[in-house]
Amino acid sequence: MPKISVIVPVYNVENYLHDCLNSILAQTFTDFELILINDGSTDSSGAICDEYALKDSRIHVFHQKNQGQAAARNYGVNQAQTDWIHFVDSDDIIHPKMLEVLFSSVTNHNVKMSLACVSESVSAESTLEIFSSVVDSSLQIIDVSEKTLVEFFPDSRYHSVCAKLISKDIILKFPFQVGRIHEDSPVICKWFVEAGKIAYSPNVLYVYIANNNSTTRTSFSMKKLDLLWAWDQQIEFYKSINYKKMQRMLEFQFFSSASKFYKILIDEDRKIAKKLKRYTFKNYFFVLFYSQIPLNDRLYFLEFFYPRTLRLYWGIRTRISKFKHTSAQ
Amino acid sequence: MPQISIIIPVYNIERYISVCITGILNQTYRDFELILVDDGSTDSSGKICDEFSKKDNRIRVIHKKNGGASDARNCGIDIATGEWIMFFDSDDCFEDNIVQILYDTAQKENADMAVCSIDLFNDNNFDNRYIPEHFAVTPGTLSGEDILSAGRVPTIYVTPCCKIFKKSLFENLRYTVGRICEDELIIHHILHGCKKIVVISDILYHYRQIPNSVSHTVSPKKLDALYAFYDRFFFYKENKIENSTSVLNAYFWNLDYYYFRVEKNTESEQRLRECLKNTRTLIPYYLKAKDISLKERLLKLIFCVSPAAYRLITKK
Q1: Are strands A113-121 and B140-142 parallel, antiparallel or unpaired?
Q2: CB distance A129–B75 less than 8 Å?
Q3: How big is the CA angle at B90 (ends B89 and B92), to the nearest 5 degrees?
Q4: Nearest residue on chain A to B95, judged by CA atoms?
Q5: Residues B122, A280: Cα–Cα separation, whole Å
Q6: pLDDT of amino acid B316
């Protein structure tokens, strides 16, 4: 019986899929099942999945109509026959020792979640530069607190389900929201708190391959507004567990994302832009007074909503700083 | 979707990289993504970048195989998500409001590019900064066409640093990999796409000059400078830009300077041959340039027939 279920949602990644799957099959820890969910690909990705399944009995392929990554992942978790889940994005690469490191950390330290670090590259060949041949065993066991989440917030440790090993029951308790993008962070924070104690390896064991076609790279569409939904979900969660610092940080994120969307929407759909502005100011105006956020950041995002007023402020500020510089020189 | 993408190629610069990154994070302007392209560093530069990226969500670190500064910048351009692009060199210094001022200037004037002034300092002698003549710049607003047709493109425009570009300028443009003087090679293409450029006199960028060793022989890669002017001449012709003679002048001046100083070995053989071939393509145009002395034009014709003969005649 396998011990880990590796879940890979697949959608139109024929140029990246071989490298991804090969990196999974090259794992030093071999006791896993690999669940590939072909989410209605229109290129040869589906065929590639089937081709691999014929060669390795650990691989199970499911083909479904396109329903989005969240649905594909939920489906994969439901099909999983083990207690441990590991997600890999179909265009990325994992270190050969990924599963070994993560699995030994959860079994040796009796935790329900472990994670490693992510880096970024442009191609699979370049990943050799990133993966060191010896993975040092500098594992940290952390009791999840607000401080943990604040520390992880800047990068993938907070925002991505990848490079993690999670107990299946936690995911079943907090599954992905179907039909939304930016679906990772709203559930990850819940998983962290539910796990209570986690193992963290500061090694880079996962490499994100910059892909120009992925959802985060394409130009604006209304779907992108799901980012606001994602912030909102997290704010509700932190309110419910009284993590005030995280709550404030996320409220500011909402405000700043809203201001950037406003700037785009004012040209695309004035009505929605105005609605967004009203909503943001009604519910989030107070973030402008949060001292934990640097003043420059607070004022900067206000500028999107009131460009003319803030232009005046920046003009004065620039003149003052120029004056300071010339008198110093 | 940040407004600005700041791209910094990183290669074995562990001595300066922390200060550089901190300088960017401390910028008064906040809405940027900082793309650190680790071009296969063998020292701790890559690790330092990773440590910084854990603390600030605006930082993206790309690790790749070594390909040179051009390749690293191209990599940054490929993945940049901002509407504007700025380049920095990892060993230079800059003011904490350089991003703010360049961005505001470009926005206010609705320009495609904004340029600030630059000074140089010798390693560890920051208080003795100076502006070399070739970096002098007249502040004001002008078009890319103005700069190109004025004659030699001032050096201040050629360096990727101390300026902000609209990302759309790079839509079909990338730095040429495998050549040095790649800045000279790309600049006429960039300038041609700029309807409006603003230049300000504020010295916001400080370029670190590392003393070069003097040598009599020169790397064959310097012939790439010639290639840049060769490319530029035909670019001018194709796009009907005035004053293409100035480009020819730059080409032949550099030819005179570099061709015979290049160390002769197997690597340079091919480049010298390419250079001679390009010169032969250019000579018909040079011969027609009435504002250059007849003697000069004839001498260069001799060069095209036989560089050795040319050398014999001109050597003092």
Answers
A1: unpaired
A2: no
A3: 70
A4: A325
A5: 51
A6: 60
Q: Hey, how many other C-beta atoms are within 10 angstroms of the C-beta on B186?
A: 22
Distance CA A154, CA A151 (A): 7
pLDDT (0 to 100) of residue A221: 82
* pLDDT at position A167 over 50: yes
For A195-288, list the strands marked E by DSSP: 197-209
Given a cut of 60, whether residue A66 has pLDDT beyond it is yes
The SS3 call for residue A163 is coil
Amino acid (one-letter) located at B254: N
Q: Which residue of B has its CA nearest to A120?
A: B62
Do A118 and A162 touch, CB atoms closer than 8 A? yes
Token pair listed for B252:
């032949």
The residue behind tokens 């490298």 is A19
Taking an 8 Å cut-off on Cβ atoms, the answer to whether A314 and B100 are in contact is yes
How many Å lie between the alpha carbon of A160 and the closest alpha carbon of chain B?
A: 13
Q: Determine the Cα–Cα distance for residues A10 and A216; give it in Å rounded to an integer.
A: 16
In the beta sheet, which residues pair with residue B207?
A: B120
Digit-coded pLDDT (tens) for A5-40: 999 999 999 999 999 999 999 999 999 999 999 999
Give me the interface pTM, i.e. the ipTM: 0.85
- Model confidence at B197, pLDDT cuts 50, 70, 90, reads very high
The region, left, alpha or beta by phi > 0 then psi within -120 to 50, assigned to residue B213 is beta
- Residues from chain B that touch A157, judged by Cβ atoms under 8 A, are 54
Q: What is the DSSP letter of B4?
A: E
Q: How far is CA B159 from CA A188, B99, B118, B183, in A?
A: 44, 16, 10, 6
pLDDT tens digits for B163-191? 999 999 999 899 988 777 888 889 989 99
Give the CA distances from residue B96 to residues A56, A116, B76, B313, in Å, rounded to whole numbers and listed in that order: 56, 34, 22, 55
Q: Tell me the C-alpha to C-alpha distance, in Å, between residue B316 and each of B19, B170, B194, B216, B251.
A: 49, 46, 44, 17, 22
Containing B201, the helix (H) or strand (E) segment is strand B197-209
CA A248 to chain CA centroid, Å, is: 20
Range from A138-147, A193-202, B107-116, B241-250 carrying the lowest mean pLDDT: B241-250
The tokens describing B82, both together, are: 């901002």
Which residues of chain B are within 8 Å of residue A154 when distances are taken between CB atoms? Answer: 53-57, 59
Contacts of residue A264, Cβ cutoff 8 Å, sequence gap at least 6: A220, B1
Amino acid identity of residue A14, one-letter, is: E
**Calpha distance B95→B29 (Å, rounded):** 12
Average pLDDT over residues A122-133: 77
